[in-house]
Amino acid sequence: MKIDSIRVGFISTNCYLLCDEETGVCALIDPGDKPEQVADMVSRSGCRLEYILLTHGHFDHTTAVRPLLEKYPDVPVYIHEKDVTDQPPKHMDMMFSRLPEHNQRYYKEGDTLTLGSLTIRVMETPGHTQGSVCLLVGDVMFSGDTLFRGSCGRTDFAGGDPKAMLASLDRLAALPGNYKVYPGHEGATELDYERRVNPFMTRRLSL
């Protein structure tokens, strides 16, 4: 397993490329902007793009999806259905506008996707949005805007819910073992570190 990333857009969103080098396939996670740079990251990997995976529907994680589908027209795009709208896409949209049936896919709690020899497990973590998810692959977690280093995602946007966020962080804290955490913004962290020092997570653990 190899993970590459670039930061895109004016909010510096992390776009990740998850590669299974053994079988030569890859998945894009949260292509938020700069489709040309994102496509170049895919090309440089030498792997075939199998999925585009979205941790939630906010524009800073999804803006490059449609331009990328012009280059990769058959690639399925996965998102939780609660973060999808039937409205036409708008600038800085807070929900993801539904794609044509050919591309649109949905995942939910407990679903798994196979990426070559890798298994991607979906964990629903509402709070930042109703349809936020974390993606677990081995000992790696792509946490979107649920868990950051020392913090968590905002809950004051439409669809945000502070109580749901605390419950989601409680579920993450209860996961067995340690995870390398790749968040939607800023640098990577580890779940054990967050269990010890993240005030939103330690508060929940102390209840």
Question: What is the name of the CATH class?
Answer: Alpha Beta
Strand order of the largest sheet: 1-2-3-4-5-8
CATH superfamily grouping:
Ribonuclease Z/Hydroxyacylglutathione hydrolase-like
**Are there runs of 5+ residues with pLDDT below 50, and where?**
none
Counted by DSSP, the helix tally is 6
Which strand-content bin applies to the residues? Answer: 25-35%
Shape: globular
Over all CA atoms, what is the radius of gyration?
16 Å
Termini separation: 37 Å
The helix content, as a percent range, equals 10-25%
Which CATH architecture would you pick?
A: 4-Layer Sandwich
Q: What structural class results from the helix and strand content?
A: alpha/beta
- The SSE string, one letter per element, is EEEHEHHEEEEEEEEEEHEEHH
Protein name: MBL fold hydrolase
Domain Metallo-beta-lactamase: 12-185
Cofactor: Zn(2+)
InterPro entries: MBL_Glyoxalase_II (IPR051453), Metallo-B-lactamas (IPR001279), RibonucZ/Hydroxyglut_hydro (IPR036866)
How would you describe what is shown here?
The chain has 207 residues and is an alpha/beta fold. The chain has a single domain (2-206), classed as Metallo-beta-lactamase, Chain A (4-Layer Sandwich). Helices cover 24% and strands 32% of the residues. It has six helices and 16 strands. The strands form four sheets. It has a six-stranded mixed sheet with strand order 1-2-3-4-5-8, covered by helices on one side. Strand 3 (25-29), helix 1 (35-45) and strand 4 form a beta-alpha-beta unit. Helix 1 packs across helix 3 (65-71) and helix 4 (162-173) crosses helix 6 (199-206). The longest helix is centred in the last third of the chain and has 12 residues, at 162-173. The N and C termini lie far apart (37 Å). The mean pLDDT is 95. Keywords: Hydrolase, Metal-binding, Zinc. This is MBL fold hydrolase. InterPro entries: MBL_Glyoxalase_II, Metallo-B-lactamas, RibonucZ/Hydroxyglut_hydro. Residues 12-185 form the Metallo-beta-lactamase domain. It comes from Vescimonas coprocola.
